[in-house]
Design brief:
This is Right-handed parallel beta-helix repeat-containing protein. InterPro entries: NosD_dom, PbH1, Pectin_lyas_fold, Pectin_lyase_fold/virulence, SCF-Subunits/Alg-Epimerases. Keywords: Repeat, Signal. Pfam families: NosD. The protein is mainly β. About 5% of the residues lie in helices and about 35% in strands. The chain has helices at about 5-15, 40-45, 350-360, and strands spanning about 30-35, 50-55, 60, 65, 75, 80-85, 90-95, 100-110, 115-120, 145-155, 160-165, 170-175, 180, 185-190, 195-200, 205, 210-215, 220-225, 225, 230-235, 250-255, 255-260, 275-280, 285-290, 290-295, 300-305, 315, 320, 325-330, 340, 345-350. It has a 17-stranded parallel β-sheet that branches. An eleven-stranded parallel β-sheet has the order 4-7-9-11-14-17-20-23-26-29-31. Strands 22-25-28 form a three-stranded parallel β-sheet, with no helix packed on it. The longest helix is centred in the N-terminal third of the chain and has 10 residues, at about 5-15. The chain starts with 6 loop residues before the first helix and ends in a 72-residue tail after the last helix. The model is unreliable at about 1-25 and about 125-135 (pLDDT under 50).
Length: about 425
């Protein structure tokens, strides 16, 4: 369901936009106020010391920037009024390529590619490309994952492809943020192993896909989010356009994934409209205690990615109400197997139900597929620039938390998580 940009184009666009890194010069201040100390965000990055803070006053900042100094915090004074605006012409809003960066309490809109990008795809000065063959030739020693990041209380709306995007990064948190109007996905985590990434407390609506994971594996936890009112709620994908196939080992627990039949959203090209969770070649994911309602095509769809099957995914304790709880659309040449659904489920095809139950008892045999799956008519969609903007979002309440980010993420106690109420984070959804 993704549409990846060629790596060379990604780098070229950044360089062409003047984002190859900050100008050299002595960093002189631990706290930089914009615009009092620096007239622009780019000037503030030049001025701030590693480990320092950039505090941005309310206002519209018609620019984009790369943060290439470790442990820097960029924080808006007012989440809804401190706005980095791409104007529909600049590719990016905020790009973090250094370890330990915090991005907090501000809004990013109007970028043609990404609102916020946290990425290890860089050479120390600016973006770099992994080679002519794209991500399949990835050299993790040459391009090590970015370490430690936080995106907190950030609003990303009406950005061309992605709202908030973490790529080739580890040990990070995306929390209490909001994304809408993305033509690919509102939130995205991709290309990492042993990721140690927590996605929690976020709202995604009016996107093509609310949350997307491609090849982010082993320790990604997605909990307490609201992925509602998109075209597709969320996806877990294996992709040959990125390194580290197959995608595997995520934990999806305690989320509201509902009513994903949005018409005031960008068109989603791959035909998954009205789906709650799509798993394409994803393996060994745990999906528990989520509220999956109002997704009239299917609450969950299993399918393959080329020769990568959907295998070993386990579903338990989810509340569903759609005409189809889980469907298997895998190609016959790449059959799904060993996927387990604990509890009663309406399936497509009907014989899949017994096979899913048997898999919970250790049967890893192939599972029946269907080529037909009814759903509502797909609405035409709209330009990302025309998606209605969100209502004002809650401000970050500051604590004594300006020290370096920890080496590992403190994960919540997932055993204590129950199926959420339909109103989870509903106060943060809706338009102005």
């Amino acid at each position: 369901m993704s549409r990846r940009l060629p790596a060379a184009l990604l780098a070229a666009a950044l360089v062409a936009a003047g984002l190859a890194g900050c100008a050299s010069g002595a960093a002189t201040k631990e706290l930089v106020h914009v615009p009092a100390d620096a007239a622009t965000l780019a000037a503030a990055v030049e001025l701030v010391s590693p480990g320092g803070t950039i505090l941005v006053a309310a206002g519209s900042y018609d620019e984009q920037l790369v943060i290439d100094k470790a442990d820097v915090t960029i924080r808006g004074e007012d989440r809804n009024a401190t706005v980095v605006d791409g104007g529909g012409i600049r590719p990016y809003g905020i790009v973090a390529i250094a370890d330990g960066v915090r991005i907090e309490n501000l809004t990013v809109t109007g970028a043609t590619f990404y609102g916020v990008l946290v990425s290890g795809l860089h050479d120390g000065d600016g973006p770099a490309t992994p080679g002519e063959d794209g991500y399949t030739g990835w050299d993790p020693e040459k391009f090590p994952p970015l370490q430690r990041f936080l995106v907190d209380h950030v609003t990303a709306y009406n950005n061309g492809l992605y709202g908030i995007y973490a790529f080739n990064s580890q040990h990070g948190v995306i929390r209490d943020s909001y994304a809408s109007g993305s033509a690919d996905s509102g939130f995205y985590v991709g290309q990492c192993e042993q990721c140690d990434i927590l996605v929690t407390g976020n709202v995604a609506e009016r996107n093509a896909v609310g949350f997307e994971n491609a090849n982010a594996s082993d320790s990604v936890v997605i909990t307490g989010n609201r992925f509602s009112g998109n075209r597709v709620g969320m996806t877990l994908l294996s992709s040959y356009q990125e390194a580290f196939t197959p995608q595997r080992g995520n934990t999806v627990v305690g989320n509201v994934i509902s009513d994903n039949v949005s018409s005031d959203s960008p068109k989603q090209a791959d035909g998954g409209f009205a789906t709650g969770i799509g798993i394409s070649g994803g393996q060994d994911n745990v999906v528990e205690r989520n509220l999956l309602v109002g997704n009239p095509r299917a609450d969950v769809i299993l399918t393959n990615t080329e020769d990568i099957p959907a295998t070993g995914n386990r579903f338990s304790g989810n509340v569903v109400d759609g005409p189809v709880a889980i469907a298997n659309l895998s190609a016959a040449r790449t059959p799904a197997s060993g996927n387990c659904w604990s509890g009663t489920a309406t399936t497509a095809p009907a014989e899949l139900a017994a096979q899913l139950t048997a898999a919970c008892d250790g049967d890893d045999g192939d599972q029946a597929t269907t080529s037909q799956l009814a759903g509502p008519d797909v609405p035409p969609g709209m330009s990302f620039r025309k998606v209605p903007p969100p209502r004002d979002q809650p401000q970050l309440e500051r604590g004594d938390d300006d020290g370096p980010l920890p080496a590992e993420v403190r994960m919540p106690d997932l055993d204590a998580v129950t199926v959420p109420d339909a109103g989870l984070l509903a106060d943060n959804s809706g338009t102005r």
